[in-house]
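Course assignment 3, question 2. Fill in each field.
Student: A.L.
Task: Predict the tertiary structure for the chain below.
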Amino acid sequence: MTEKDDGSQRIDDNVLEVNYNTKFPEKREITRVAGHTYGGCVRDMVDKACNGCIVNADRSFSQASLCQMTVANFIGFSIKDSVVISHGPVGCGSQSHTMDFTIRLYGQPRGVKMNSARWFSTNLKESDVISGGESKLRDAIIEADRRFRPSTIFVLMTCTPSIIGDDIDTLLDDLKNEVSAPLIPLHCPGFKAKVFSSGYDVVYHGIIRSGLPLQPTPHVDFEPFDPSDQLYEVKVAEYEYKKNHTVNLFNAISISASDEAEIRRLLEALGLNVRIFMEFTEPDQWRYVTEAVLNVALCHVHDLYFIEYLKQNYGMPYVLPPIPIGSSSTRQFVTEIATFFGLEDEAKAILDKEEAKLKKALAPIREKVQGKSIIITGGYMRVGTAALLASELGMRVAGMRNFNYDKFGNDLFEEVEDLMGDIPSAISNQSSELVNMVRKVKPDMAISHPGQGVWLNKLGIPSITIYAQRFTFFGYKGAYELARRIERTLRNTNYAKNLGRNIKLPFTDEWYEKDFDHYIVEQN
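Answer field:
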């Protein structure tokens, strides 16, 4: 902790309290002091995060929420040739059906041939709750390995076996010599964390505990150059130069192939070598993750847990720039990386040219959308940077709603406040609160997380997604494409307006009369 000028305490911005040696990771409410509940404005939200008290709020009433198992499940499927075993009742695997087409579609533009989603359920019944489900899990693992010979097997520990105390870690250790695939335990019961993005840490914690190598093995994966070779010194110099100019970018299932390509384009223009982990790779590739000098998370909400581990255990530095949506965030993203390599002047020349082209391209769009109001909802890094892009277009940000929030967003949201003033802000994954908030701020349109746009359209508010694999959002190309979609959406709002006139949402007038944060309560 550090003390602010007014004597209050502020949590250090770059501290991540993590114990990597435990059986399962702590939830983000502890490691990142993350909050899942808030209603108010940007300034107060940042202050509460600075003082570590944003985590102290909860709801006296809530509806369905997001589960950390969901994101752990998605990452498991994104690993090439993997199998996912859902250890629990069969219903916990219901969302897995949607991943079959998804992962094949997402892999194709990356040049990665993905198999269909392969998953098992141990289908625990009432009798298994009494006698335990470990024997069913053992059978499922052996059968998955026999049938598919997968690159790895992820075992998802859901709520039921977590409550009855199934010991999957000991079971996986016992099976290591019976199956060919690496076994990765994922402790992701939904009741464990209300901040569902804790599931990202669950996956990385499982990878770390699995014992899979994260650096090349001499004479096996990497053959040292022969000193008797006449070109020995040249080869060593070439190898060291490439490694010393290599950046690892960590992606996420919500980041498109074209997003990756746009950031790769900008960094390669600086003469850097770019590699991308972990989605759409396989465990054999992970051993080369340490063959770089800098780690960068395209979204550190997703990857900070792992790159901090690489720093602590392999001495690999990292930077945490904002997600590169809009010209100001893209400039900051590229500049932070360039500064590490001493390439600030080269980066400035490239970025100045890119911004000049973007400004010219955005001019006719800005004329059509400036003055329009917008609400933005989703993960906080995308919400904050999308707000900066909206401001760049001359739009008024009427409100922001984040699924969760922690101190690592403070710099970004302080920039938002400095530029746009104190905007209404919420931390919520409750659809009822979103609908209530939108009815009160009455925006012209919205940028929303997939699955949320349906509520907004039924309110008569046109909405576009905050991420999608078929679109580009990152960099200068992404800024132009997103701006163009905003302009097209505002040009014709009839679809949403027709829905709003003809559909009644399942909320009472009494609820609409309350503040959207009516059920939020402070806890000690």
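Instructor remarks: The mean pLDDT is 93. The chain has three domains: 68-193, 232-340, 362-522.
Grade: pending
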